[in-house]
Structure to design on (1111 residues):
């Protein structure tokens, strides 16, 4: 895989939107220490939609949080583009999150006092720069919220809220978008809409998306699926189908 | 159930600490006011006992019904020959004629300035050297002899005097003479309470007061085996008419009672402030409990769904409040000691020195503190407790906040409370209520109800107003400003409850400011016209009499054209003691503009002039006769010769007589103020005026307590003293603002907790820590400004109502100090900035991952 690559070459940094090298994360210490990540090497290619799967406690959320600069590694390094995340202070991390990374969370994703459009432009508004209105309109149009842009979150359905969240993640054209169970709270029809839209964004806008999920059907929308268990990457699928993912999970489960 | 309460308190410790703080401050204020009053009382009780420890009985003139113990009018005296007669009685072991004067004799330092303590008075007493008599004993040197004085250590230190030094002493006769310092004296066991004492032997003090041959009282020591009561019985038959013998016990009681009246007054004033502070903290406790209950809706629903009864839930919240009340009471008790100590320091820094003495914590104070601390907390928690009990089991699944109470209830309830409050306020100000205490109760309850009503109603417009206040913030700060504005207006009920404390604080402060500014401006206008005099000669600050010899000295100056003086006087009218003035009525009208309403103000020795207002009240008119009692007890029938309508020049008194008449009944030729016009009527900025002023100052140098002031300077002095009083009130009300700030910190902290996930999200999408702090800071500023604006508007309205209710002779128009009010508004905003520091820090340092973690 990508494990042996040092990450110093220009080619590699151009190829990957984000990488992790020998990523180790330990919670607590001594007898109670929990090894959430035990040396993970992974790269996320530009323009690809990757799903990360694994049972509870496998370290999939930890990996994503560390890659996104929401949490700090105990060892190793992660990069967003060429930027080594561990070298950044809080302010720089914040700017990175604002400009280089997009997030889609499971729920409670929006600021309740802001309208849909304001939520979408929030990361850009927080910076001193101005939002690219044409692009924002395009994104809003793409997620089908043109007639809902001035509504507040409590006036939107769960699916609409999550579309706003996706639009927000894409609107600043980040290097990479991370999704943490982005469809976990939605019914299957709405989930499908959202995931299809995420797939389109990858294809048409050359966006890079990494999504944590435990739903094989969701994972099947991705170009590639990584399987984590016990803090390590244990398997990988390309162009998966739901059945293939499901079978893989079962076979991995049998290994245990 | 109790376990749940304990866990809940432990879990919410951080939030409760702040709530505690507001109760503690309120309880401390109550405790502090009692401690301070008790401490003062203990000091003065001790002083009374010390002063009379060596006295078995006194013979003195029977006190007039109209006399005031702390009057500036001279004490009555009688012939000293009585002393020898009394000494001859077998029951009498010691009889000493005594002279005691208050603020008439002073020592002067090397610069010729009066040596005096900042607040307490200066007494001069006769002292024979008999240990313990008057509470005095010589600790160094000897008792004073001819042309000698003995002083307390504090006075000697302040004046830089040492035993054997020659000291200039300003005497009641208006002369300055040199005395030798014979010794240092000490008073009792508990100190002098800060007062200075000048001791002389009897003949010397008689000469220094110009009362040769007379004394104020005879101090008696009983022979062996004779009790004070037996002594009184033995002495009484030989007393001439008008004198009485009083045993030690009664003397001590009287003395303590006299001090007690003043101390009670101070105690009531402090208690009033304490009640205001408690009232403010009620809102904060209420708000905290309401928010806590709201945040725990899901948990309460769960408890209900697994079988907890409504009354158990209610009990849980109430027990929590009882525990908080207990902790707050204990802490507040000690906090009160701290506040008493701080107030003492504050009073001292304003120049009103408080006497030294240990702080007194009495059982009654402890009982009151616990009753108040527990009562306030539990009452504040009642509504949230009942609301908590209404949480439906289904809320466990549904989550979400409590149902907002219906608007109709708010509008109706708020309007009703407001209406009753306004009615009470109106009643209190209308003059329909007789007793002063009831007026204060009506005003207090009225204001409290108005505040509650406005708070209830303010939730209706808090959202809109906060949004309007936030508009410039958003324009200035962009997205962070926008978030702040939305946060401040998203929960109007919370915004209004949070802002209430600040509203009350600023309403009271503004009200006082409006009142003070109206007093200053009105009095300035009135005083500008009150004096026809070019210069006023008299002591500033306290109304203290000085020797009338200065009148003659000034009259002899070429620079002086017309001169008139007045003296302080107490008269009995209809059996009640009233303040009056005696003046030189032949020249008085030139110097003092009394505003002749009817008749003539040339009073002669059988006339009296009355303020027209008072005359109307009593149904008197020119030509009627009025019988008044002088402080010598004599009833005199006088003819009302004139009515006047401007009493500003004579401190608002209602009766005027001629000095000639007064001096037939009052001993000691002392005056309170002299007014002069200058020869040639020079302009105030002319060199002639300055030269004349200098000449008059030189002539008045023999009486160092006297200042020479132009009309403008006099008005400045008055403004300064009112401003000083206002500053003191501001200091006490400042506690309210501190509590208000605590309330804002509390609510904001709880809001931050409530919005943990939202804050995490903001951080995750790129909000920097400082942006987050900015957001919370401006949210606090918007809430504070909402409270401040509301408070200032109410304060102006309250101040206006009070000033309008005060009769026009005192305050005829309202003056609103806009500049001060602007400062208060800015200060209100700053309170918000300060209050946001801690919650902002908390929010900015939330762990992003924890914040966005799922359930």
């Amino acid at each position: 895989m990508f494990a042996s690559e040092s990450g110093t070459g220009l080619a590699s940094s151009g190829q990957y939107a984000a990488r992790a090298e020998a990523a180790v994360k330990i919670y607590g210490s001594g007898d109670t220490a929990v090894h959430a990540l035990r040396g993970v090497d992974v790269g996320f290619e530009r323009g690809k939609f990757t799903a990360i799967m694994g049972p509870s406690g496998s370290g999939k959320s930890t990996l994503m949080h560390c890659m996104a600069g929401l949490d700090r590694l105990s060892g190793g390094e992660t990069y967003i583009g060429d930027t080594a995340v561990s070298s950044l202070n809080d302010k720089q991390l914040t700017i990175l999150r604002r400009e280089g990374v997009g997030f889609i969370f499971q729920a409670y994703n929006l600021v309740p006092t802001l309208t849909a459009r304001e939520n979408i432009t929030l990361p850009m508004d927080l910076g001193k720069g101005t939002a690219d209105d044409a692009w924002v309109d395009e994104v809003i149009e793409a997620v089908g919220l043109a007639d809902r842009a001035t509504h507040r979150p409590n006036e939107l359905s769960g699916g609409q809220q999550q579309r706003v969240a996706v639009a927000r993640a894409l609107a600043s054209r980040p290097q990479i978008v991370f999704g943490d169970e982005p469809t976990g709270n939605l019914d299957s029809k709405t989930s499908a809409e959202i995931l299809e839209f995420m797939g389109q964004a990858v294809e048409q806008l050359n966006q890079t998306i990494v999504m944590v999920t435990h739903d094989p059907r969701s994972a099947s929308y991705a170009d590639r699926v990584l399987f984590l268990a016990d803090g390590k990457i244990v398997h990988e699928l390309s162009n998966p189908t739901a059945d293939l993912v499901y079978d893989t999970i079962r076979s991995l489960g049998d290994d245990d | 159930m109790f376990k749940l309460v304990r866990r809940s308190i432990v879990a919410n410790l951080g939030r409760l600490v702040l709530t505690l703080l507001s109760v503690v401050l309120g309880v401390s204020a109550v405790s502090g006011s009692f401690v301070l009053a008790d401490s003062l009382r203990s000091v003065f009780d001790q002083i009374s006992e010390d002063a009379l420890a060596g006295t078995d009985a006194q013979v003195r003139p029977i006190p007039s019904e109209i006399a005031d113990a702390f009057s500036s009018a001279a004490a009555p005296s009688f012939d000293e020959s009585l002393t020898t007669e009394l000494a001859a009685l077998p029951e009498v072991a010691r009889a000493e004629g005594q002279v005691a004067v208050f603020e008439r004799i002073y020592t002067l330092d090397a610069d010729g300035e009066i040596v005096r303590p900042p607040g307490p008075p200066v007494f001069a007493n006769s002292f024979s050297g008999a240990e313990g008599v008057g509470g005095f004993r010589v600790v160094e040197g000897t008792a004073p002899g001819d042309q000698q004085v003995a002083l307390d250590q504090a006075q000697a230190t302040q004046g830089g005097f040492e035993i054997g030094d020659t000291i200039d002493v300003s005497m009641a006769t208006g002369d300055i003479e040199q005395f030798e310092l014979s010794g240092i004296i000490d008073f009792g066991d508990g100190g002098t309470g800060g007062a200075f004492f000048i001791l002389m032997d009897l003949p010397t003090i008689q000469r220094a007061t110009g009362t040769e041959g007379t004394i104020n009282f005879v101090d008696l020591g009983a022979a062996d085996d004779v009790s004070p009561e037996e002594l009184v019985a033995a002495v009484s038959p030989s007393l001439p008419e008008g004198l009485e013998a009083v045993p030690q016990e009664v003397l001590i009681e009287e003395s303590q009672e006299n001090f007690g009246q003043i101390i009670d007054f101070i105690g009531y004033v402090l208690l009033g402030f304490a009640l205001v502070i408690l009232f403010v903290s009620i809102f904060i406790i209420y708000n905290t409990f309401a928010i806590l209950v709201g945040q725990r809706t899901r948990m309460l629903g769960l408890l209900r769904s697994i079988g907890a009864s409504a009354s158990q839930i209610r009990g849980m919240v109430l027990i929590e409040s009882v525990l908080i009340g207990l902790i707050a009471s204990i802490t507040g008790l000690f906090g009160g000691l701290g506040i008493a100590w701080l107030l003492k320091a504050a009073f001292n820094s304003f120049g009103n020195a408080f006497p030294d003495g240990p702080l007194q914590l009495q059982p009654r104070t402890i009982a009151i503190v616990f009753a108040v601390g527990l009562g306030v907390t539990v009452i504040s928690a009642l509504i949230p407790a009942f609301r908590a009990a209404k949480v439906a089991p289904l809320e466990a699944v549904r989550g979400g906040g409590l149902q907002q109470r219906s608007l109709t209830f708010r509008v109706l309830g708020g309007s009703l409370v407001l209406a009753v409050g306004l009615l009470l306020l109106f009643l209190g100000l209308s003059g329909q209520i007789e007793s002063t205490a009831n007026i204060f109760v009506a005003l207090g309850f009225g204001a409290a109800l108005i505040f509650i009503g406005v708070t209830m109603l303010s939730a209706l417009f808090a959202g809109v107003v906060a949004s309007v206040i936030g508009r410039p913030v958003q324009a200035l700060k962009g997205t962070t400003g926008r978030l702040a504005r939305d946060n401040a207006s998203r929960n109007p009920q919370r915004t209004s409850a949070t802002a209430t404390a600040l509203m009350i604080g600023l309403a009271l402060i503004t009200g006082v400011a409006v009142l003070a500014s109206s007093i200053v401006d009105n009095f300035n206008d009135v005083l500008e016209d009150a004096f026809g005099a070019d210069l006023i000669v008299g002591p500033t600050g306290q109304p203290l009499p000085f020797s009338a010899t200065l009148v003659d000295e000034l009259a002899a100056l070429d620079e002086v054209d017309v001169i008139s003086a007045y003296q302080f006087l107490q008269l009995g009218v209809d059996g009640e003691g009233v303040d009056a003035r005696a003046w030189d009525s032949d020249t008085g009208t030139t110097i003092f503009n009394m505003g002749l309403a009817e008749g003539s103000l040339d009073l002669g020795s059988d006339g009296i002039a009355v303020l027209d207002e008072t005359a109307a009240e009593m149904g008197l008119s020119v030509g009627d006769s009025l019988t008044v009692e002088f402080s010598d007890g004599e009833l005199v029938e006088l003819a009302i010769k004139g009515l006047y309508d401007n009493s500003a020049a004579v401190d608002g008194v209602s009766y005027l007589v001629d000095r000639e008449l007064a001096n037939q009944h009052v001993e000691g030729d002392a005056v309170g103020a002299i007014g002069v016009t200058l020869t040639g009527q020079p302009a105030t900025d002319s060199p002639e005026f300055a030269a004349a002023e200098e000449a008059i100052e030189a002539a008045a140098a023999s009486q160092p307590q006297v200042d020479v002031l132009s009309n403008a300077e006099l008005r400045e002095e008055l403004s300064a003293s009112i401003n000083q009083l206002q500053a003191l009130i501001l200091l006490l009300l400042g506690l309210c603002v501190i509590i208000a700030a605590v309330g804002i910190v509390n609510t904001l902290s709880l809001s931050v907790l409530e919005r943990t996930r939202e804050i995490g999200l903001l951080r995750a999408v790129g909000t920097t820590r400082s942006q987050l702090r900015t957001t919370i800071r401006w949210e606090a500023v918007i809430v504070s400004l909402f409270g401040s604006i509301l408070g200032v508007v109410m304060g102006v309205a309250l101040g206006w109502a009070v000033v309008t209710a005060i009769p026009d002779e005192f305050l005829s128009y309202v003056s609103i100090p806009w500049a001060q009010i602007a400062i208060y508004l800015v200060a209100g905003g700053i309170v918000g900035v300060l209050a946001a520091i801690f919650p902002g820090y908390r929010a900015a340092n939330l762990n992003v991952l924890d914040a966005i973690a799922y359930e």
